Amino acid sequence: xxxxxxxxxxxxxxxxxxxxxxxxxxxxxxxxxxxxFDANPVLHSDGFTRFTSPQVLRHLENRNEVHRxxxxxxxxxxxxxxVDWEPVLRNDLSEPIRxxxxxxxxxxxxxxxxxxxxxxxxxxxxxxNSDPTQVDEVEEFSNEFDASRSTGHLCAATVxxxxxxxxxxxxxxxxxxxxxxxxxxxxxxxxxxxxxNDILIAHPCPASVSRFSFKIGxxxxxxxxxxxxxxxxxxxxxxxxxxxxxxAGGFPMPxxxxxxxxxxxxxxxxxxxxxxxxxxxxxxxxxEMAWLxxxxxxxxxxxxxxxxxxxxxxxEISSKAPSLEVFLPTRMLYAAEETSKDMHIQTRxxx
Length: 351
Fold this sequence. Notes:
Layout: E1 29-34, H1 54-79, E2 84-89, E3 102-107, H2 109-116, E4 125-129, H3 135-140, E5 157-158, H4 162-170, E6 177-179, E7 183-186, E8 189-190, E9 198-202, E10 210-217, E11 226-230, E12 233-236, H5 244-247, E13 260-264, E14 278-281, E15 286-291, E16 295-300, E17 305-310, E18 314-318, E19 324-327, H6 330-350
Parallel strand pairs: 1-2, 1-3, 3-4, 4-5, 4-19
Antiparallel strand pairs: 6-19, 7-8, 7-18, 9-12, 9-16, 10-11, 10-15, 12-13, 13-14, 15-18, 16-17
């Protein structure tokens, strides 16, 4: 099923009397990708509630309503803009997204990540965090339940500033950034999914030991061959370095870095090779892994997208994947600019 109809079949753009047309628009076709909302967020199919705490029930109902209102607001704003657009639920994506100039995701980082698996480098994406975490709410209920909502690390907008951010994109004032993704090949066959955050290569049973060997290098040189027994191997991009990698003890990377970060999870007796269990892979290098268990799985950006592997398979991982064009939050762009300045200063000081 195609996820986007040709533009000729889309609804004609709504006339907007407030648009004066001072700036020529480059974006005319837009896909609104939506995280589904639960019609009955606190009920099982048999009608019984999942929780008994009234506060938890109110929290879940409120999250659902906030997300629904965010979707409606984004639609209302788009109705006032001179663009063709169509809403699609993220669960209905089945083929690459084509024939649009911009994708707007409404949900959180998960919705943006799912969109990325259907996008090449020619179509930019912007995320709208529909249900941001409220610090006061988390503090108020910290002794009773986890009141966290959506992190939206990569989302450049919320309902409060969506129209402002959208206008800056349509007018050409704001531009997307290129985020690195991961290229994966199994036995020299390239996988079609390019992870934006990270991958985990592990035994399908979390209680089982993963056995594999790997080395890092290029045509000129490589690291020693590392024979591992562990809980698997995690590799992240710069964008994903603040997610599971950071939780596991990794470090955050500059968002525009093209390096990859890898970590052997819970290595068993690494000995004098311990320093090789965690590190980075530069753009001109790759990781070559030999899988040495009967079963294995490559998990891509979480658990929903995965690829099975088996004993003897050779997996190659690098950052030589098409980048993803993402409109990033201002705070992230500022941090990237400061990091670039620091690196420039350090480079000049060495000269």
